[in-house]
Amino acid sequence: xxxxxxxxxxxxxxxxxxxxxxxxxxxxxxxxxxxxxxxxxxxxxxxxxxxxxxxxxxxxxxxxxxxxxxxxxxxxxxxxxxxxxxxxxxxxxxxxxxxxxxxxxxxxxxxxxxxxxxxxxxxxxxxxxxxxxxxxxxxxxxxxxxxxxxxxxxxxxxxxxxxxxxxxxxxxxxxxxxxxxxxxxxxxxxxxxxxxxxxxxxxxxxxxxxxxxxxxxxxxxxxxxxxxxxxxxxxxxxxxxxxxxxxxxxxx
Length: 252
Known about the structure:
CATH class: Alpha Beta
Helix content: 40-55%
Order of helices and strands: EHEHEHEHEHEHHHE
CATH architecture: 3-Layer(aba) Sandwich
Largest sheet: 7 strands, parallel
Radius of gyration: 17 Å
Shape: globular
Distance between the termini: 33 Å
Number of strands: 7
Strand content: 15-25%
CATH topology: Rossmann fold
Number of helices: 8
CATH superfamily: NAD(P)-binding Rossmann-like Domain
């Protein structure tokens, strides 16, 4: 059973890998045996060192996912450096906050372009490579609690993460028969840069914490088990699922 969770010899692309949830998931995949292509606009030196310290290969790919040509370059660079691709973790995302009455087209488009449009086209580029390789593979999208709930003051983020949940199901419907598992992780309220404004607001932070049955904010490492499961052969018959890692938030 333990062997089914191993990723020895697998090659994983992780977007938004320079920090936070992306860096934690990259480390977890490396711990399980995967080589990693880390994608980010930020500094990838630290996560590259962490992956190599675990005895795995790492390639840093500096790409802005808002560029429509980025998906093709990311896959090509991964194949060049690692010899192929087996796993995609679509983690990169941005957020903009404003009242819905004041939300601007730029704040709408910027978030949808990165969080939803780029996630789809990178999944498409990876899936084309997986079909070419003929051995199937794993795509893990990163959803959110706002895939299920409306939230406040984050119109484009809520729309994008609701879209990720639906897109995960659609791609699973189309690609399961090709041996490609498409699933998602929905992190709860995690201690990351995206939630820094919430954690800095004593009233809002107290409201959130009071609703989490686990009694704490999530940490990036809380996603380790979920991402390794969904990237490994242990999840071979899991398709179109969004796994909440939320300290019990949705059960409340």
